[in-house]
Amino acid sequence: MAAERGSLGYRLNRPRRHRKKAPVRTGPVEVSIHGITSEGAGVGRLPDGRAVFVHRTAPGDRVLVRVTEAKGRWARGLLDGLLEEGPNRRVPPCPLYDRCGGCTLQHLDYDAQLAARSTMVGDALRRIGGRKVADPPVEPAASETHYRSRVTLTLRRREGGGVTAGYHALDRPGRVVDVHDECLLPEPPIGQVWTALREAWGPGAERLPAGEVLRLTLRSAEGGVVLTVDADRTTGDGDAAALVAEVPGLLAVWRGRTEHEPPRLLAGDPDTVTRWQGFTIPVRTSAFVQVNRQGADRLHEATLREIGRPPRELRVVDAYCGAGVFGRRLAHHGAKVTAIELDPEGAAAARMGEAEVPEGSQGSFRVLEGLVEERLEEALPADLVLLNPPRAGVHPRVPDLLREARVPRILYVSCDPATLARDLDRLGPDYRIRHIQSFDLFPMTSHVETLVVLDRDDQFHEVDEV
User: Domain count of the chain?
Assistant: First the structure.
């Protein structure tokens, strides 16, 4: 499982028999760093041979480490001093780097970031997935900064009326690092709206909904930005109308979905949209689209190239479809697409594609709302299945259904190498890897997007493994 392993083969949570828990050191110890984990921490060896994971370190660094957590075979620590810099270290560009937990690789130069992501993917596929593959190439991002079309920040109200709003701290995730205009990741309109919003929300953020902790998500839309507020209370909506009136570029404010009620517009335009791959997508609360527009375009083009034959009359399942961009585009080229999406907002956005298929294209597009593991069987048989799940990967039943249906080709798009590898292992020897390509959609972070093309063994006519 992803939570049990570091990206270099160290199992993090498995207990070791007949060994007492090692004591935590109180003083710094010298360590040489030789790799990067999937969480972005440097990895080295303590003098007793245990692996130690230390954020803000880079391969080639010689550092002083203060151990904060020690297990039988591994430990975690804090950087206490940099004795010698590795060859790929750089000055982090963000002024919040020392405290914020958002960009764990920004102290590496860009080529080193790409190499680290490549190693993460290859290592996971070999070690967890049992696949004999080389580290895949990683297509670079168009820009390291200002690429996110969606950001989520946490707001905490403090006693006495103060407010802290930003991202979670690196080594103390319960603490929030205050962010004004420093963050390098959002698209410029989002950054501008965030800065103005902070000025306009009033003492104690009284114009935002009530609650000690708020989750604030800003999404780019045509002509501006949409704000969704998820709160730990369901009463007290604040004064969203004043925010829309006073914050330039803020188009709408929504109250997020709760257990008892759907998303609710608090103020502004109810029909905000954005454009992806030529399609109109509503921008409201939770409908999923990739956060990096230019990177997503390259990922889409690469995915479509791997279809393998002209899509006309191809039977396609677009599972975990989000707003259905993949499937809608294939339907326009003549494929018969069944899309599956759990999130009601995503499914509603995807259904816009049902009426968009041009006359004479012979294509079709329909949406099934619900869990993929519960709706996939009625969408099969298919010539091609697209899997684009969240970080948790697919339900164990999904690989079973795909094998039973003898789907000739599977395209798996993943944002987590560990769960990708686990799911490929579950597919077993019936499916062989034809191609792997990774994409940097999240510069300065340890995240990476990967496309894996799999053919059934009895349909396989291409290169064995990458």
Answer: 3
Domain match, 306 and 451 both: yes
Residues 183 and 248 in one domain: yes
Task: Tell me the C-alpha distance between 76 and 460, whole Å.
Answer: 44
Q: Are residues 395 and 306 in the same domain?
A: yes
Write the CB contacts of 24 (distance below 8 Å, at least 6 apart in sequence): 67, 68, 69, 70
Indicate whether 111 belongs to any domain.
Answer: no
Q: Which residues contact 91 (CB under 8 A, 6 or more apart)?
A: 107
Q: Is 0.85 surpassed by the pTM of this model? A: yes
What strands lie across the sheet with 224-231, from one edge to the other? 176-178, 163-168, 150-157, 213-221, 224-231, 250-255, 264-268
In a domain, 383, yes or no: yes
Domain end, chosen from 264, 282, 300, is at 282
Q: Are residues 303 and 439 in the same domain?
A: yes
- The CATH number that applies at residue 34 is 2.40.50.140
Same domain, 415 and 373: yes
Which bin fits 160, alpha (ψ -120 to 50), beta or left (φ > 0)? left
* Assigned domain for 102 exists: no
Task: Say whether both 386 and 271 belong to one domain.
Answer: no
User: pLDDT tens digits, the chain, 466 residues: what are they?
Assistant: 333 333 333 333 333 444 445 555 557 999 999 999 999 999 999 999 999 999 999 999 999 999 999 998 999 999 999 999 999 999 999 999 989 988 999 999 999 999 999 999 999 999 999 999 999 999 999 999 999 999 999 999 998 889 999 999 987 878 999 999 999 999 999 999 999 999 999 999 999 999 999 999 999 999 999 999 998 777 789 999 999 999 999 999 999 888 778 889 999 999 999 988 788 888 876 767 789 989 989 998 998 888 866 777 899 999 999 989 899 989 988 899 999 999 988 899 899 888 778 777 788 999 999 999 999 999 999 999 999 999 999 999 999 999 999 999 999 999 999 999 999 999 999 999 999 999 999 999 999 999 999 999 876 444 333 3
